Amino acid sequence: MKKLVLAAALIAAASSASAGSLADPIIEAPVIIEEAASSSAGVIVPLLLLVLVAAAIAD
Fold first, then answer.
1. CA distance 6 to 3
2. Using CA atoms, how far apart are residues 49 and 41, in angstroms rounded to an integer?
3. Which tens digits make up the pLDDT trace of 11-51?
4. How far, in Å, CA of 13 to CA of 5, rounded?
5. 53: left (phi over 0), alpha (psi -120 to 50) or beta
């Protein structure tokens, strides 16, 4: 009888110790770094195309 009471007490202690749920993990958002677009690259390509077209017309 003592072993049954002891087993019941251990089971009750173990179940109450594991009761509840875990807290949601805190996930930090990744840091995204955008490189600044150089304005010269946006101007040089159309200018080169214009020079090529002008050279083709001049011939």
1. 5
2. 13
3. 776 755 554 567 777 888 888 888 776 666 678 888 888 99
4. 12
5. alpha
Residue 8 has pLDDT above 60, yes or no: yes
Residues in the chain: 59
In whole angstroms, give the CA distance from residue 25 to residue 30.
Answer: 15
The amino acid present at 51, given as its one-letter code, is V
Task: Give how far the C-alpha of residue 43 lies from the chain's centroid of Cα atoms, to the nearest Å.
Answer: 34
Structure tokens at 25: 């993990």
**What mean pLDDT do residues 47-57 have?**
90
CA distance 59 to 52: 11
